[in-house]
Amino acid sequence: RAFARYLLRFLGFIFWGTAAALAFGGVFVILKYKDYRYLFQESFLSLPGWLAVAAALILLPTGVLAISISAKSSRYQQGALMYLLLVLLCLGMSSAVLAQFYSIWMASELKSTMGYLVYQYNGTHGQGPGSRAMDVIQRKLQCCGVQNYTDWLKVTAASWRLPDEKAHVPESCCKEEYSQCRGDLGHLEHLFQEGCLKKLEDPLHFAMLYMFWCCTVLSVLELLAGVSNGILMRHQPFHDLRIL
Asked: Entry's PANTHER family (predicted)?
Protein backbone atom coordinates (compact mmCIF):
# COMPACT_ATOMS: atom_id res chain seq x y z
CA ARG A 1 0.00 0.00 0.00
CA ALA A 2 2.84 2.43 0.82
CA PHE A 3 4.50 1.63 -2.49
CA ALA A 4 1.21 2.36 -4.30
CA ARG A 5 1.08 5.78 -2.63
CA TYR A 6 4.64 6.64 -3.60
CA LEU A 7 4.10 5.40 -7.15
CA LEU A 8 0.89 7.40 -7.51
CA ARG A 9 2.61 10.55 -6.26
CA PHE A 10 5.50 10.01 -8.67
CA LEU A 11 3.09 9.42 -11.57
CA GLY A 12 1.26 12.62 -10.66
CA PHE A 13 4.39 14.67 -11.36
CA ILE A 14 5.15 12.60 -14.46
CA PHE A 15 1.66 13.36 -15.77
CA TRP A 16 2.46 17.08 -15.72
CA GLY A 17 5.62 16.54 -17.73
CA THR A 18 3.78 14.24 -20.12
CA ALA A 19 1.08 16.88 -20.57
CA ALA A 20 3.69 19.39 -21.75
CA ALA A 21 5.24 16.86 -24.16
CA LEU A 22 1.84 15.84 -25.49
CA ALA A 23 0.69 19.43 -25.93
CA PHE A 24 3.88 20.22 -27.85
CA GLY A 25 3.32 17.26 -30.19
CA GLY A 26 -0.35 18.10 -30.69
CA VAL A 27 0.29 21.75 -31.51
CA PHE A 28 3.14 20.75 -33.85
CA VAL A 29 0.82 18.41 -35.80
CA ILE A 30 -1.93 21.05 -35.99
CA LEU A 31 0.46 23.74 -37.25
CA LYS A 32 2.06 21.42 -39.81
CA TYR A 33 -1.35 20.51 -41.17
CA LYS A 34 -2.31 24.20 -41.28
CA ASP A 35 0.84 25.00 -43.29
CA TYR A 36 0.27 22.27 -45.88
CA ARG A 37 -3.48 21.65 -45.76
CA TYR A 38 -3.79 22.43 -49.49
CA LEU A 39 -1.82 19.22 -50.16
CA PHE A 40 -4.36 16.99 -48.44
CA GLN A 41 -7.94 16.29 -49.45
CA GLU A 42 -8.88 15.04 -46.00
CA SER A 43 -9.71 17.81 -43.53
CA PHE A 44 -9.44 15.63 -40.40
CA LEU A 45 -5.69 15.04 -40.66
CA SER A 46 -5.12 17.29 -37.63
CA LEU A 47 -7.47 15.16 -35.48
CA PRO A 48 -4.62 13.32 -33.66
CA GLY A 49 -3.20 16.71 -32.70
CA TRP A 50 -6.48 17.95 -31.26
CA LEU A 51 -6.96 14.70 -29.34
CA ALA A 52 -3.45 15.08 -27.92
CA VAL A 53 -4.12 18.68 -26.82
CA ALA A 54 -7.36 17.56 -25.14
CA ALA A 55 -5.50 14.75 -23.37
CA ALA A 56 -2.80 17.20 -22.24
CA LEU A 57 -5.41 19.49 -20.67
CA ILE A 58 -7.06 16.59 -18.84
CA LEU A 59 -3.66 15.37 -17.62
CA LEU A 60 -3.18 18.51 -15.50
CA PRO A 61 -6.08 17.89 -13.06
CA THR A 62 -5.29 14.17 -13.23
CA GLY A 63 -1.80 14.86 -11.91
CA VAL A 64 -3.22 17.03 -9.14
CA LEU A 65 -5.64 14.28 -8.11
CA ALA A 66 -2.91 11.63 -8.13
CA ILE A 67 -0.68 13.69 -5.84
CA SER A 68 -3.59 14.59 -3.56
CA ILE A 69 -4.72 10.97 -3.22
CA SER A 70 -1.18 9.85 -2.42
CA ALA A 71 -1.19 12.26 0.52
CA LYS A 72 -4.71 11.68 1.80
CA SER A 73 -7.16 9.19 0.34
CA SER A 74 -10.61 10.39 -0.53
CA ARG A 75 -13.31 8.20 -2.05
CA TYR A 76 -14.55 10.98 -4.30
CA GLN A 77 -11.05 11.85 -5.49
CA GLN A 78 -10.22 8.20 -6.12
CA GLY A 79 -13.39 7.73 -8.15
CA ALA A 80 -12.78 10.92 -10.13
CA LEU A 81 -9.21 9.81 -10.85
CA MET A 82 -10.44 6.48 -12.22
CA TYR A 83 -12.89 8.23 -14.54
CA LEU A 84 -10.22 10.65 -15.78
CA LEU A 85 -7.77 7.80 -16.39
CA LEU A 86 -10.40 5.98 -18.43
CA VAL A 87 -11.08 9.08 -20.56
CA LEU A 88 -7.35 9.63 -21.02
CA LEU A 89 -6.83 6.02 -22.06
CA CYS A 90 -9.50 6.37 -24.75
CA LEU A 91 -8.04 9.66 -26.01
CA GLY A 92 -4.46 8.39 -25.98
CA MET A 93 -5.16 5.12 -27.77
CA SER A 94 -7.33 6.87 -30.38
CA SER A 95 -4.61 9.42 -31.04
CA ALA A 96 -1.92 6.72 -31.27
CA VAL A 97 -3.92 4.62 -33.75
CA LEU A 98 -4.76 7.66 -35.91
CA ALA A 99 -1.15 8.87 -35.86
CA GLN A 100 0.11 5.47 -37.02
CA PHE A 101 -2.54 5.25 -39.75
CA TYR A 102 -1.92 8.78 -41.04
CA SER A 103 1.84 8.25 -41.04
CA ILE A 104 1.39 5.45 -43.59
CA TRP A 105 -1.37 7.17 -45.55
CA MET A 106 0.41 10.52 -45.89
CA ALA A 107 3.33 9.08 -47.88
CA SER A 108 1.18 8.00 -50.84
CA GLU A 109 -1.10 11.05 -50.57
CA LEU A 110 1.79 13.52 -50.70
CA LYS A 111 3.46 11.77 -53.63
CA SER A 112 0.21 11.71 -55.61
CA THR A 113 -0.69 15.34 -54.88
CA MET A 114 2.76 16.73 -55.65
CA GLY A 115 2.99 14.71 -58.86
CA TYR A 116 -0.31 16.27 -59.93
CA LEU A 117 0.88 19.80 -59.04
CA VAL A 118 4.06 19.34 -61.08
CA TYR A 119 2.11 18.02 -64.07
CA GLN A 120 -0.44 20.86 -63.90
CA TYR A 121 2.19 23.57 -63.50
CA ASN A 122 1.93 26.15 -66.28
CA GLY A 123 5.09 28.09 -66.97
CA THR A 124 3.35 30.68 -69.12
CA HIS A 125 0.49 31.31 -66.68
CA GLY A 126 2.11 30.70 -63.35
CA GLN A 127 -0.64 32.39 -61.37
CA GLY A 128 -2.90 29.33 -61.21
CA PRO A 129 -3.60 27.80 -57.77
CA GLY A 130 -1.51 24.72 -58.53
CA SER A 131 1.40 26.76 -59.84
CA ARG A 132 1.36 29.10 -56.83
CA ALA A 133 1.25 26.14 -54.43
CA MET A 134 4.25 24.49 -56.06
CA ASP A 135 6.23 27.74 -56.10
CA VAL A 136 5.47 28.35 -52.42
CA ILE A 137 6.58 24.84 -51.46
CA GLN A 138 9.82 25.03 -53.43
CA ARG A 139 10.80 28.43 -52.08
CA LYS A 140 9.83 27.65 -48.50
CA LEU A 141 11.53 24.24 -48.33
CA GLN A 142 14.38 25.12 -50.74
CA CYS A 143 13.72 22.13 -52.95
CA CYS A 144 12.93 21.35 -56.59
CA GLY A 145 10.50 18.82 -58.03
CA VAL A 146 9.04 15.79 -56.28
CA GLN A 147 12.10 13.53 -56.04
CA ASN A 148 14.55 16.06 -57.58
CA TYR A 149 14.76 18.65 -60.36
CA THR A 150 14.59 15.99 -63.12
CA ASP A 151 10.84 15.61 -62.47
CA TRP A 152 10.35 18.90 -64.31
CA LEU A 153 12.08 17.56 -67.44
CA LYS A 154 9.27 15.04 -67.98
CA VAL A 155 6.47 17.60 -67.97
CA THR A 156 7.98 20.89 -69.18
CA ALA A 157 7.25 20.56 -72.88
CA ALA A 158 3.76 19.08 -72.51
CA SER A 159 2.46 20.98 -69.51
CA TRP A 160 4.08 24.35 -70.16
CA ARG A 161 3.30 24.21 -73.89
CA LEU A 162 6.78 25.37 -74.88
CA PRO A 163 7.85 22.85 -77.56
CA ASP A 164 10.43 25.13 -79.14
CA GLU A 165 12.32 25.97 -75.97
CA LYS A 166 14.81 23.97 -73.99
CA ALA A 167 13.56 22.21 -70.91
CA HIS A 168 14.00 24.19 -67.72
CA VAL A 169 12.63 24.34 -64.22
CA PRO A 170 10.52 27.00 -62.44
CA GLU A 171 12.36 29.99 -61.07
CA SER A 172 11.23 28.96 -57.60
CA CYS A 173 13.88 26.21 -57.86
CA CYS A 174 16.63 28.84 -57.97
CA LYS A 175 18.78 29.55 -54.94
CA GLU A 176 18.30 33.05 -53.54
CA GLU A 177 21.94 34.03 -53.92
CA TYR A 178 21.72 33.66 -57.71
CA SER A 179 19.47 36.57 -58.69
CA GLN A 180 20.07 35.99 -62.43
CA CYS A 181 18.85 32.39 -62.31
CA ARG A 182 15.90 31.66 -64.62
CA GLY A 183 15.73 27.89 -64.21
CA ASP A 184 18.32 27.12 -66.86
CA LEU A 185 19.58 23.54 -66.55
CA GLY A 186 22.96 24.61 -67.85
CA HIS A 187 23.78 25.92 -64.36
CA LEU A 188 22.69 23.20 -61.97
CA GLU A 189 24.69 24.77 -59.15
CA HIS A 190 22.11 27.58 -59.19
CA LEU A 191 19.26 25.17 -58.43
CA PHE A 192 18.11 23.30 -55.35
CA GLN A 193 19.10 19.67 -55.81
CA GLU A 194 16.89 17.96 -53.24
CA GLY A 195 13.29 17.03 -53.98
CA CYS A 196 10.33 18.43 -52.03
CA LEU A 197 8.67 15.12 -51.17
CA LYS A 198 11.30 14.03 -48.67
CA LYS A 199 11.44 17.48 -47.06
CA LEU A 200 7.68 17.38 -46.60
CA GLU A 201 7.50 13.78 -45.43
CA ASP A 202 10.26 13.92 -42.82
CA PRO A 203 8.73 16.51 -40.41
CA LEU A 204 5.21 15.12 -40.83
CA HIS A 205 6.37 11.55 -40.26
CA PHE A 206 8.40 12.67 -37.22
CA ALA A 207 5.36 14.48 -35.80
CA MET A 208 3.12 11.43 -36.18
CA LEU A 209 5.78 9.08 -34.77
CA TYR A 210 6.32 11.42 -31.83
CA MET A 211 2.57 11.46 -31.19
CA PHE A 212 2.36 7.66 -31.39
CA TRP A 213 5.08 7.03 -28.82
CA CYS A 214 3.89 9.80 -26.48
CA CYS A 215 0.39 8.33 -26.44
CA THR A 216 1.72 4.77 -26.05
CA VAL A 217 3.91 5.71 -23.07
CA LEU A 218 1.04 7.71 -21.59
CA SER A 219 -1.28 4.69 -21.82
CA VAL A 220 1.22 2.57 -19.87
CA LEU A 221 1.54 5.27 -17.18
CA GLU A 222 -2.24 5.51 -16.93
CA LEU A 223 -2.53 1.77 -16.38
CA LEU A 224 0.08 1.96 -13.60
CA ALA A 225 -1.81 4.86 -12.00
CA GLY A 226 -5.07 2.93 -12.26
CA VAL A 227 -3.56 -0.13 -10.59
CA SER A 228 -2.02 2.00 -7.80
CA ASN A 229 -5.30 3.79 -7.23
CA GLY A 230 -7.13 0.47 -7.21
CA ILE A 231 -4.82 -0.88 -4.51
CA LEU A 232 -5.53 2.16 -2.32
CA MET A 233 -9.27 1.81 -2.90
CA ARG A 234 -9.11 -1.87 -1.96
CA HIS A 235 -7.72 -1.00 1.48
CA GLN A 236 -10.56 1.46 2.07
CA PRO A 237 -13.85 -0.49 1.75
CA PHE A 238 -16.96 1.14 0.31
CA HIS A 239 -19.54 2.30 2.81
CA ASP A 240 -22.11 3.12 0.16
CA LEU A 241 -22.41 3.45 -3.62
CA ARG A 242 -22.34 7.24 -3.83
CA ILE A 243 -18.85 7.10 -5.39
CA LEU A 244 -20.41 5.54 -8.52
From this structure: TETRASPANIN (PTHR19282)
CA-based end-to-end distance of the chain: 23
SS3 for the chain is CHHHHHHHHHHHHHHHHHHHHHHHHHHHHHHHHHHCHHHCCCCCCCHHHHHHHHHHHHHHHHHHHHHHHHHCCCHHHHHHHHHHHHHHHHHHHHHHHHHHHHHHHHHHHHHHHHHHHHHHCCCCCCCCHHHHHHHHHHHHHCCCCCCCHHHHHHCHHHHHCCCCCCCECCHHHECCCCCCCCCECCCHHHECCCCHHHHHHHHHHHHHHHHHHHHHHHHHHHHHHHHHHHHHHHCCCCCCCCCC
Report which of 189, 204, 151, 200 is spatially closest to residue 45, judged by C-alpha positions: 204
> pTM to 2 decimals?
0.75
Residue spans per domain, the chain: 1-235
Q: What is the pLDDT of residues 144-189, one digit of tens each?
A: 888 888 888 776 555 554 544 566 788 888 888 887 887 777 778 8
